[in-house]
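During the second half of the funding period, the structural biology subgroup turned its attention to how the target accommodates small molecules. The most pressing case was beta-D-ribofuranose, which had performed well in the primary screen but for which no bound structure existed. We therefore specified the complex as follows and requested a full 3D prediction, including the ligand pose.
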Amino acid sequence: MPTKLILDVDTGTDDAVALMTAALSPDLELVGATSVNGNTTIDYTTENTLRVFDWIGLPDVPVFRGCDRPLARPQAPRGMATRIHGDLLDLPPVSRGATLQSGHAVDWLIETYLASDGDIVLCPVGPLTNIAMAIQKEPRILEKIPQIVIMGGAHDHGNVTASAEFNIWLDPEAARIVVNCGRPIRMIPLDATHRALVSSEDAGRLRALGTPAGEAAARFVLKRIDGYDATQPMPHRPGAAPVHDALAVCSIIDPAIVTTSFIPVDVEVDAELSVGRTVCDFRFRGGKPANVEFATDADEPTFVAMLLEILGRTA
Ligand code: BDR
Ligand code: CA
């Protein structure tokens, strides 16, 4: 039986690969996608999500538009992620009928979880605004969420500040609510995603698959490599870049693709230098119980092989 899944996305380049992977994997049943402000504005993240499904021939996957700004902070300055994502993805406008559903993403999440059998994994790969809003508005959804697999967080190094990862940093108050929600949480932070890079040679292999998903993934990976090499090159690995959000999806299909530690994790929300840092208590010094399965490593060859196998499929 495929695992049911909802993806919450701020669709830029790696979210797009995650969406295609989730939609085309025979091991997953993508129930729908919710968009959120993040890599770019909500208008673009929503439009990009629709374009991805339309491009791969799955225009009927439900897409709901979500929050347009963080929970408790003003909108973050634009442009930080431009080189790696841009605003509109390099995909043609919708032509096969992908249409935005009516209603707000937060309300759809609440309705869908309350009506569910408690079997839909929630996978947020953008700022956690929609998820925190849904929990606050209707806490009874929590007992219906079997697991939350988050792309976000960082222990060793940040990517937007010295110690913070973008998704958590953009809306730390929301992230704090989600990591402390009491449900099983698996976090796929930079510590793992930077261990599973996709190279320009891999992009060539994706393109050679000859499928819409392979072609789009090749484009996005090459854009990411260009952006990373220019702004935050991977140590000792020029010509390769992380595809963070897709690793989170692959870790739902094959949990062994990442190595995790079950530890107490909280989010710094009020700090001069480290706002948005995920504070990881690997030695249990704070006296709190473990709440997060925090990934510290990932299996790059398996990740790339999974992408090649799944994105070689057509709808
Ligand atoms: C995360 O931030 C976004 O730019 C990416 O889509 C990913 O979800 C990585 O820090
Ligand atoms: Ca993302």
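Two results from this model are relevant to the next phase. The mean pLDDT is 97. The pocket of beta-D-ribofuranose (ligand 1) is lined by residues 12, 14-15, 39, 81, 125-126, 151, 159, 165-167, 244-245 (CB under 6 Å).
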